[in-house]
Amino acid sequence: MAVWGRTGTIRDCPPLDSPAGAGLAKEGITEREWAALLKVGEVISLKGSELLISQGDTYDEPGDRQLYLLSDGECRIEVKGKPVASIAPGDFVGEASFTSGRVQPRTATVRAKSDEIRVMAWTWRDLQAFMDNPKNLRTKAALQAIWMEGLAGKLNDVMSALGGQSVVELAEEDKTRAGDYGYRYLEDTREVESIVPISASTLAWWTFTREYRALRRTFRFGEFKDTGIAGPFSIIDRFLETSVFPVLRPSRVDLPQDPEVVDLQNRLNELKLSNKAIEDRETARIAATKAFLEDESRKGLRAAGYILRSQTPWYVMAPYKALCWFLDVVFEDRPIQRFWFLETVARMPYFSYLSMLFLYETLGWWSGAAEVRKVHFAEEYNEMQHLRIMESLGGDTRWSDRFLARHAAIIYFSVLILGYLVSPFLAYNFSELIESHAVDTYTEFAEANEELLKSLPPTPQALDYYHGGDMYLFDEFQTSRPAFSRRPRIQNLYDVFSCIRDDELEHVKTMFACERGTGALPSPNAAAATPRWAQDATPTMPNATAPNIRRNTVKRAETDDAGGGGRSGGSDKLRTDIARKTPLEAFTAAFNPLRDLVKAVEKRDVTEKLRRGRDNGGEQGTDSAVGARGGEEEKIDVSASRKEPEEKQDS
Ligand SMILES: [Fe+2]
Ligand SMILES: [Fe+2]
């Protein structure tokens, strides 16, 4: 480390009209606000080639200097000894780690390039306290705006210098990689839908006129064209058009003429999905999970409540089976439409859970669900992105599919509202079944069509979401990825479906955690964003245990005690263990048993048990847990063929 020399007091600080203050002055900061900011920092001078920051150093005490603003001179940024960028007066250093709040070794060395440099330095503690003060809101906003701009530039510099592609280059590459599949059903209504709604009656009228035209078109030119019912309806519509209805304009939806788009649509139609294969996959996963839990060494997991079969009663299984049957029958050989339908209804559980949690809060019954609400909203937002991707692939082009999906969504929403009222445990259990089914379906689809999918381009919607700079709330529903990490970069449609499947697996895991009320739903993002030194001072994350879940657990514990069981006792122990930990540790602890289970299923360590169980004529239960692929002698692998480095770190 450099030898630091304090050069004095506030009088030695740079004025607002110097290069150091220019950025903040541009953001509208006054002399008074500038002086207040400088007052909580210190001025430091450094001789040429001395180090301001050394790569690999950790700064994890609240009194350590963390953020610097270059006032005079020039500095060089080096990564592994290689110069990658320069910084000039007015540039900040350390804003990335300050804003993320992450305690991690410095990722670059910053060295004085001029004979003498002068910097303003702030400690984490002082600057955080300054920014938390409502009086300094304007300065805080100005600082954040400057940091965001600076970070984007630095990232580009570093990427280019390291021989990789800059963010701009990657975005350009995405543009050339994206494929236009020519499906635009909702494009003309998006603009209308994205503004603040005017009133329910206006919205209802817009929707009615849109669907009314769509219905008329579909009878005349669309999916009912070749059926017996289309003829009479079409004739009646034409007759009414001359007397009552307005003329249908445009008369028909123009099909794409571009040969490239037509070719993409034709190839998309070749994608297959076998209902039988999905069923086999589900059966194998259930058997594998059962075999895993039956092993003597997993007594602890069973004690902690990881016996799933007995927790899914027939009245939850029945609607689940009915939904699966419906999907199989209606969407046979139409996988994209099936996914679109699935994604439409998949958002409904989150809508209903959020509605009920807001109601509980409004009534003053239960106010401890802030974290759970955040997770459910993040899941819902993620499902919406899946939905948009499916729309860009033509999942919603048929009027009949849209009709079915909308009505199924209303029913699904209402049923889950009721379910959540009676028992959040069962509502979450039902969702877990659906999400597991989604994992199985996407896994089967990706594997069965791997070659074709790899030859098809990703859609702009998928690239926007998975590669965009702001993956809004993406970290909030992740259970096993390091905070701020992203899915692997997307090259083709196979990668898109792999990403969606991995998202679904995260939904399964969070539903699993909600069911058991393990009391820890802080996201990896939330946990990692709390610096280590601040964790002790941070209140324990709100307990995610719903009242009904707690009651169920207590009830089960009583039953188990009477019958010599002890499952819920284990659950309570798990909860107690978690409550004693810091948020980050609590998060990890809550998912450890589940992660073990996933890993074991992935690593085939249940294959032998599975075979033995079948040889013994062991029954297959209705358990639902995490996805796995299977077949009797087949490899069992939950997350399909692509392994991610982040997941390997977890094992
Ligand atoms: Fe989804
Ligand atoms: Fe999902």
Helix residue percentage:
55-70%
- Strands, total number: 9
The unique ligands bound to this protein are:
fe (ii) ion
| C-alpha-based Rg, rounded | 29 Å
Shape: globular
* Protein structure class: alpha+beta
Short synopsis of the structure:
It is built from 28 helices and 9 strands. It is of the alpha+beta class.
List keywords for this structure.
651 residues, alpha+beta, Jelly Rolls, 3 domains, five-stranded antiparallel β-sheet, four-stranded antiparallel β-sheet, 28 helices, 9 strands, 7% strand, disordered C terminus, binds fe (ii) ion
Give an overview in words.
By secondary structure, the protein is of the alpha+beta class. It folds into 3 domains: 5-164, Jelly Rolls (Sandwich); 187-255, no CATH class; 275-331 and 425-650, no CATH class. Helix content is 57%, strand content 7%. The protein contains 28 helices and 9 strands. It has helices at residues 19-26, 31-39, 95-100, 124-132, 137-161, 167-177, 187-194, 200-220, 230-241, 259-268, 275-294, 299-303, 314-330, 335-346, 348-363, 370-392, 399-422, 424-448, 450-454, 460-467, 493-516, 524-528, 532-535, 547-562, 567-579, 583-602, 607-615, 645-650; strands at 5-6, 42-47, 51-53, 65-72, 75-79, 82-87, 92-93, 109-112, 116-123. The strands form 2 sheets. The protein has a 5-stranded antiparallel β-sheet. The chain has a 4-stranded antiparallel β-sheet with strand order 3-8-5-6. It is globular, with a radius of gyration of 29 Å. The two termini are 36 Å apart. Mean pLDDT is 72; it is low at 1-8, 528-591 and 604-651. The site of one fe (ii) ion has 6 residues, from helix 18 and helix 21. One fe (ii) ion is lined by residues 346, 383, 435, 438, 504, 507.
